Amino acid sequence: MRVRPLLAVLVGALAVAALVGASTTATAGRACRDAVGDNGYAYAGHQATYRGHGVRATLTLIREPNVASGHVAGWVGVGGPGQGVNGEDAWIQAGVASMPGMDPFLYAEITRDGRDPEFILIEQGVPVGRSHRIAVLEMSGQPGWWRIWVDGDAVTEPVRLRQSSGRWAPIATAESWNGGEPACNSFSFRFERVSVSYGGGGSWRPFVPGDRFLDGGYRLHDLASAPAATGAYRRTLASDSVLPYAFVAASG
User: DSSP E strands: which ranges in the chain?
Assistant: First the structure.
């Protein structure tokens, strides 16, 4: 499955710019791209082995991003281009993103019935080191209806995505877009407690990585062993360790 680019952040950029202040820059870990993937997009992340009814992760920006052009983002979600009814675009995702001259921000993005993506600004000025528990989850007893949750609170109204129930394998990934220009963008996101819901309302089980997205110059580093295909972890972690499944997605 082709990963969906974060288009709606760009659509909503003018509205966001009025709310978000200027960011500081960092030079460590840059990755320069002339054109990567589709239209300059590049990825570092995972798609789950199994289809599910939701995905969650504790997401942390662990280094100040530097965005020369386009954007960077770390997100969890389901769906993608051509994944909706009759091959229409349909997806729902949430995460942390950054654009040139802006502080990182927490966002949600929804696309349904092949329409233009809808961008929702959840929190502006997300600092390095602050963690957010983000979940994209189908509602209990209401197949095809979804909500986004942040730190235990629902941040969207119910969203209907037709014929979506149990059809999509969840994704947890970082992405970079070069804005159509040669650009050096840097990012580093930590994904912890990554889980998949096997039922509406949050029947959470370990995220079992299937497809791996890793474009040249980027890196993925496991912080805890990925679970086996059965969902059983391969080793026991100390109580004070980062809980499985956990990984870092970074440039350079």
Answer: 31-33, 41-48, 54-61, 71-80, 90-98, 105-111, 118-123, 131-138, 145-150, 153-154, 159-160, 171-177, 183-185, 188-197, 204-206, 209-214, 218-224, 246-251
Give the integer Cα–Cα distance in Å for 154 and 145.
13
Phi, psi of 50 (to 5 degrees): -110, 150
Nearest CA to 54 out of 134, 151, 173, 160 is that of 134
* Cα gap 156→33, rounded to integer Å: 34
Q: Using the structure block, give the residue that is written with the tokens 């930590």.
A: 190
User: For residue 194, what are its two tokens?
Assistant: 């990554």
In terms of phi and psi (left: phi > 0; alpha: psi -120 to 50; beta: otherwise), the region of 213 is beta
DSSP β-bridge partners for residue 119: 109
The 8-class DSSP code of residue 16 comes to: H
The angle at the Cα of 89, spanning 83 to 92, to the nearest 5 degrees, equals 80
Provide the sign of the torsion angle of the four alpha carbons 35, 40, 44, 48, taken in this order. Answer: negative
223 touches 248 (CB < 8 A): yes
Task: Collect the ranges in the chain with pLDDT lower than 50.
Answer: 1-5, 7-29, 35-37, 234-240
Q: What is the tens place of the pLDDT at every residue in 104-115?
A: 999 999 999 888
Q: What is the pLDDT of residues 217-237, one digit of tens each?
A: 899 999 887 776 665 554 444
pTM: 0.84
Q: Is residue 187 a contact partner of residue 212, using CB atoms and an 8 Å limit?
A: no
